[in-house]
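Posted in: Structural Biology > Protein-Ligand Complexes

Title: Requesting predicted complex, iron/sulfur cluster in pocket

I'd be grateful if someone could produce the 3D structure tokens for the following input. Sequence and ligand are given below.
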Amino acid sequence: MAKRLKPGLVPGLFIITSIYFALGFVNILTALSAIFCMAIPFILLSKSGKKLWCQHYCPRASLISLTGKPRSRWRTLPTMFTDGFLRKTMLWYFGLNLLFITGSTIRISIGAMEPMEHVRLFIALPLPGPLPQLLATPLAVPGWLSHLAYRFYSMMLSSTLLGIAFSRIYRPRAWCAVCPVGFLSNTVRKRNRLGLQRQTEDLLDIVGP
Ligand code: SF4
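-- Reply #1 --
Done. Output follows.
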């Protein structure tokens, strides 16, 4: 029988987020592992039908739980967190970011643009220079690949900073109310449930109640 997980996040996962950002100073190509962080929640969801990532395994949720205010100082979330406005805004931001990342990486690969080898926060705020690299890659790395790694690193850093800010201003997991991954997981889950309900209705139509 499958072992039941204890409620709440697995302890200590915030270390994964810290290691992710620290590794950017060792070799920026490690930032490409963000692709797995974005894929795993949906793989778990498709396998289990549950939001296992959000409930137990999310390293960012672990980090903001740690940085957040104590319960006695929690503040009520503003309406824009709960009425869907900020959730949709963040989804647009996330979508546009991915679009820019894909477009610029393709342009660099065909020689139409120079790679941007620096961190850029919130799409628009460049930080000076490339990150120090403690471990050089033995083979020559194509410009588009290091560009892609910097773009993922920037996206992860921007959203983590926002999550930490929300955790300090309002309450630890305020970011989860607007997180695009959480929002998309909810949408997929609702669709799956609806699909299952429809399949059952269709079956009942065929075989009779
Ligand atoms: S909503 Fe986002 S930040 Fe919160 S647990 Fe889910 S994936 Fe992690």
